[in-house]
Amino acid sequence: MTDMVEKLAQAVIDGEPEDAQALAKEALVQGLDPLECITNGLTKGIQKVGELFASGEYYLPELIIGADAMKDALEILEPALVGDQKREVVANVVLGTVQGDLHEIGKTLVATMLTANGFQVKDIGVDQPASAFVDAVKETGATIVGASALLTTTMLQQEKLIQALDEAGLRENVKVMVGGAPVTDEFAKRIGADGYSEDAISAVNLAFRLADAPE
Fold first, then answer.
1. What is the pLDDT of residues 90-128, one digit of tens each?
2. Cα–Cα 20 to 30 A to 11, which of 65, 68, 100, 203?
3. Is the dihedral of CA 155, 158, 163, 167 positive or negative?
């Protein structure tokens, strides 16, 4: 790795969005390969952040700011990709927080982490009815849907989403993963979801498994 690529990775690990952005701009000025900067810089950096979070050395604030650093640099580097240099997409994913629930941080963090790891993500936002998820799947051809619920009163909307996908004839081709503070693996199995994740890191690992792709 070049020194600049290593610095990009470190800016993500240290949670320095402004530094990451400045380094991304400098990398392009120097004529460095943007795909190399993303793959061996930003992605490796956020993977290290994930490892530190999983081991208990980092907490949620560090995870969030690391993801912010990655996202800010990615916004500069991705437009510089040309022609067939575009990053290989692991899978198309639709993400959203279910109807009646306005919580955004967890869902947004999952979207950022998935994007960093090569997924094409359509984030439909918060307080979204099952029909909005269905429409987004039809629009994007997504093969994975992630539904977040942070309230016990909105958890049942995740089940309604699965029913809506079934009624629309999409369920067979779409994997559904659910998450959120009150959600459990047992609940996910009961409503017929394909998987449950308790945080952004496990959500990425789950998405790789559901996409049947190497992590």
1. 999 999 999 999 998 889 889 988 988 889 999 999 999
2. 203
3. positive
Q: Tell me the HSE value of 162 on the side-chain side, using a 13 A CA sphere.
A: 18
pLDDT digits (tens, 9 = 90+) for 30-87: 999 998 999 899 989 998 998 999 899 999 899 989 999 998 999 999 888 875 666 7
Residue 84 CB-density burial (10 A; 0-12 exposed, 13-18 middle, 19+ buried): exposed
The side-by-side arrangement of strands in the sheet containing 144-148 is 120-123, 92-97, 144-148, 175-179, 195-197
Q: Which domains does the chain have, with CATH numbers?
A: 3-85 (1.10.1240.10), 92-210 (3.40.50.280)
The total number of residues shown for the chain amounts to 215
Pairwise CA distance, residues 16 & 190, whole Å: 41
pTM of the model: 0.82
Tell me if 121 sits within 8 A of 71, measured CB to CB.
Answer: no
As given in the structure block, the two tokens for residue 62 are 């560090």
Tokens describing residue 15: 């949670």
